[in-house]
Amino acid sequence: MDSRLNYFGNSLAAKVLKHVNSANKVVSDSTLPAATQELVKIRASQINGCGFCTDMHTKDATHAGETQQRLNLVAAWREATVFTDAERAALEVTEQGTRLADAAGGVTDEAWANAAKHFDEDQLVALISLIAVINTYNRINVINQQPAGDYQPGQFG
């Protein structure tokens, strides 16, 4: 399978990605726990059917020490006992924030209140921003049909 175009080799795409990557760096450097960030990226990528991002973030999470059991259960997090209450709250907001068309009104007050019990205001800003950024990456890669499977941890710096 080949991508529709060489997005990563295009000069205009490089300008766009420079800004998306800058936003991602701000979130990455926030106090939102790194493990939670990877779980959010994986779950949104699964929902959006982005094989490229799912491949990348499961490999990055493994490289950072995440367990295979937890990675195997991200898609079934509601039934899994391996996630903290804070991670579960972040995953719920991720799902509702990614499936906007499926949930009239977006993220429910209940899901938001639950997340607010576990994260401070800066972490909530980071969570919202991360959901927006990973959805942007997902859409770029899905629309371009970016092939998955060859990503190596750290290949993008």
UniProtKB/TrEMBL annotation:
UniProt xrefs under Pfam families: CMD
Recorded superkingdom: Bacteria
Span of domain Carboxymuconolactone decarboxylase-like: 23-95
SUPFAM superfamilies linked: AhpD-like (SSF69118)
Protein name per UniProt: Carboxymuconolactone decarboxylase family protein
Organism field: Streptomyces dengpaensis
